[in-house]
Amino acid sequence: MADTLHSWNPTVATTAARPASKLLKFLRRRSAIAFVMCLPLMTVIGGLVIYPAFYSIYLSMLNKSQTRFIGLSNFTYLLSRDVFWMVVEQSAIFALTAVFFKALIGLVTAHLINNLPVKGQRKWRGMLLVPWVIPLALSTLGWWWMFDPTHSALNWIINLFGGDEIAWLSNPYWARFSVILVNVWYGAPFFLIMYLAALKSVPEQLYEAAAIDGASAWQKFVHITLPMMRNIIAITILFSLIVTFANFDIVQIMTAGGPRNMTHVFATYSFLTGIRSGDLPLGSAVSLFMLPILAVSAIFILRGVRKRGREIG
Amino acid sequence: MAEVALRNVVKKYDDVVAVSSINLDIPNNEFLVLVGPSGCGKSTTLRMIAGLEEITAGEIVIGGEVVNDLPPKDRDIAMVFQNYALYPHMTVAENMSFGLKLRKFAKDEIKARVDNAAKILDITELLTRRPKQLSGGQRQRVAMGRAIVRNPKVFLFDEPLSNLDAKLRVQMRTEIKRVHQKVKTTTIYVTHDQVEAMTLADRIVVMNGGKIEQIGSPNDLYHHPKTRFVAGFIGSPAMNLIPAKLETNGSSLKVRLSDNLSFPVPENRAARYRGAIGKDVLLGLRPEHITETRGANGASGNSHEFPATLDVVEPMGMETMVFFKVDGVEVCGRVEPTAAKGSGETMLLRANLDHMHLIDPNTNRVL
What's the ipTM? Predict the structure, then answer.
C-alpha cells in the first residue's frame, strides 16, 4: 500500500506541473526571451509600417472614390502618363546624383579629418555633423530663403562679383540643382561619420605593410582603403538611395515639385495626386512604384556585401 | 643582402626618450636579435630601421647608404609584423605579389618568385586562399613569403611568433632558422622571449630602458653577462641573485651569504674581485650550478656542499627544480629527479662556483 501511494503521488505532481514548467522552459530559452523583448517594437513596426504598406497596396487597386475595385488600372493609367515618366526620371536623377555627391564628399572629408591630429578631429567632426542634426524642415527653410531670387544671400554674393542674379527655384534646371544641393548638404555628414568610422577600423599595420611593399598614398587608398571599406560604402549607398529616393520634405518645402513639375520626385508627386488632388488610390499607386526599383538594387548590393563579408571576415 | 649600421640613433616622443643613442653594426647575412622587456625600445629601433618611425637624431645606414630620409619603400627592406598584416581582401598569391606588382615586375618574374617562395615555405597549396581561411601558422608563413619574394637587402621581424601557441611557436622558430639558412639575408628580429633570442640569433642585442645593455653571441651573453639586467634576463629559469658580502679568508676570498653559509671564491677569480673586499655584492649563480651532491655532476675543486630546506619542489620530467631560501631570498636549484627530496625536507646541495658571478649592486655591473 505504501508502495502504491509512493508511486501515485509523484504522478499527480508531474501531470499538474507539466504545462506550467513547459511554458517556463520555453520562456527561459534565449531565443524566447529575445522574442518577447522584441515584441513591443514588432507591434509598433507592424502597426505603423506593415499594416499601412498592405493597406496602400489594397488602396492602389480602388477607384478614386474608393468604392470599386479596379485591379491594376491605376498602374496602367500612370504608365501611360508623360508626367509620371518624368517623375521616374527625375527621381532617378535626384537620387543617383545626390547619393553620388554625398558619398564622394563624405569620403573626401572623412579622409581629411582622419589625417588631422586627434585633438582637432573632434572639433571638425562636430562642426561637420551640424547639417545632419538640424531638423530638416527648418534648415530647408533657411536654404529656401537663401535661394530667394531678389533679396537672398546667394544672389547678393553673385552680384558682388558682378554676376547676374539666378532664378534658383523658378528656373527648372536651377531648381533641380538646388534641391539636389540641399539634399547633398544635409546627407553628406551621414556618409562622413560612417566612412570615418570605417577608416578608423582599417588596421594601421596594413598601411605600414603597404608602405614597405612600395605603395604610394594613392595606391594605399586604391588597394587598401577602398577594398577594406567596400562593404560599408555599399551599405551606406543602399541606405542613402532608399532614403533619398523617398525624399519628400526638401523638394516639398523648396519647390513643391514645380516649376512645371520639373522637380517632382515619387514622394512629392504621390502627395500631389493623393492628398492635394484627392485621389488617394492613384497616390498610393505612385508611391508603390518605388518598391520594385529599391528592392532590385537592395538585392544586388546586399548580395555583394554578403560575398565580401565571407571573404574578408 | 647588405650590412646595416646605426650611429647614435635617438628617438624621442615629445620629452620621453624611447631610444637613447644606439650604436650597432650588423654585418652582411647576420641574424641579429633585439631582445628586452616591453617598452625597452626594441620595436621602436626596428621601426626606425624600417622607416615607419622618424629618427630624432643619428644616422641609419643600409648597404652603405644613409637612409634617414628615405621612405620605407626605398630602403629595400621587408618586414614581418606581429599580427602578420596580411591584406584580407587578397589571396595568398596576391598578398605575396603585391609589392612586386607595385614595383612593376614582369608577370612571369612575379609568378616565378611567388612559386619559389611558396615552395620554400611549403604553402603552394594555399596560394588561392584568403588569409581568413588560414591558421595562425599558415598566416605566419604567408607573411614570411611576402618578405621573401621581394628579395630585399634586409629582413625585419617584429615579434612574429608572439601570436602563436607554444607548440607552433617552437615549430615556426625552427622554420625561421631554416629559411634564414636557405635565403641568407641580413635579418633583424625583435622579440621579448629570451629563448627565441638564444635559439635563433647569431648575435643578441639585449635592450633595457631605451639603451643597449650588452651585445654578444647567445653563449657569450649566457656565460659572461656584463650587467645585472642581462644576468637576470637571459636564461630560464633566471639566474639566482643572492645578496652577499665579499670577505677575506686568509690569503683567499669567500662570499658570505648568511651567518652560517659562505662559499670560497675560486683562486683564478680572486684577483678580479679583490677591489670589492668588504663590500656588499650580489652572488649570481644559475640553477644548473646548484645541483645534487650525488655523482660527478658539477663536482670540481671549486664546488661547495651545503644543506638546504626545500620550500617548493617542481618536477619537470628530465629534471626537478628545487626552491629554498637563503636569508629570506628565494634560490632555485636544478637536480636529478631521482635525487630530489620532498618539500619541507632538508637536502644536501652542491654549488659549482666555477660559474659564479659577482655583481656590484650600486652600479649593477658584473665584477
Answer: 0.82
